[in-house]
From TrEMBL:
PROSITE patterns in the cross-refs: TYR_RECOMBINASE
Naturally occurring in which organism (per UniProt): Shewanella septentrionalis
Keywords, in A-Z order: DNA recombination
Superkingdom as given in the UniProt entry: Bacteria
InterPro entries: DNA_brk_join_enz (IPR011010), Integrase-like_cat_sf (IPR013762), Integrase_catalytic (IPR002104)
Example of a GO biological process term: DNA integration
Protein's recorded name: Tyrosine-type recombinase/integrase
Domain Tyr recombinase: from-to ranges: 2-184
Keyword NADP: no
Listed GO MF terms: DNA binding
Keyword Chaperone appears in the UniProt entry: no
Amino acid sequence: MPEVQAVKDQDTVKLISYLLERQFSQQLADVWNIGLNLALRISDLLSIKFSDIQDDRLIIKESKTGKIANIKLNSKTLERIQRIAREHPNHIYLFQSYRNQRAKHIKPAPLSRRYICRALAMIGEELKIALGTHSMRKTRGYLLYQQTKDIGRVMKMLRHSAEETTLRYIGIEQDDIDKDFVELEI
């Protein structure tokens, strides 16, 4: 599987959301937009249940690390979640699969990681970007780093323990570091 990238500008972030909605569904655009705002791994994002959301917080145990993610939801994310809850009051999962809606004997399940991966890969091909499920998490980390230049904050948000892991993860490369040295004259 090829290495996926962070999306490094806001216009492309919005374009991806638009293309997901137009070519796939509002639900996939919601996965992208909410995923960007939560910076969770895709397995944790898809496993979110409405019961994991209390007021303006999401509290879940990350499957990979076992760490508790206690995330304050921003207003855009909260509005999207509330809209989904209104439209699907009987859903258990935030991103519940519609595939087996009529089958009464099949337990509710979230969308599959594979489905999300294929949709993002198709949009990525169209835009000539290596896009995948980790792109949401990487994009949030990259944009936060560009806004703050505080790798410690980015590490904490992504719940990483090593700075070099975070820098590599969000796609900060030698060219970016060189640019910072050239542009910041003291």
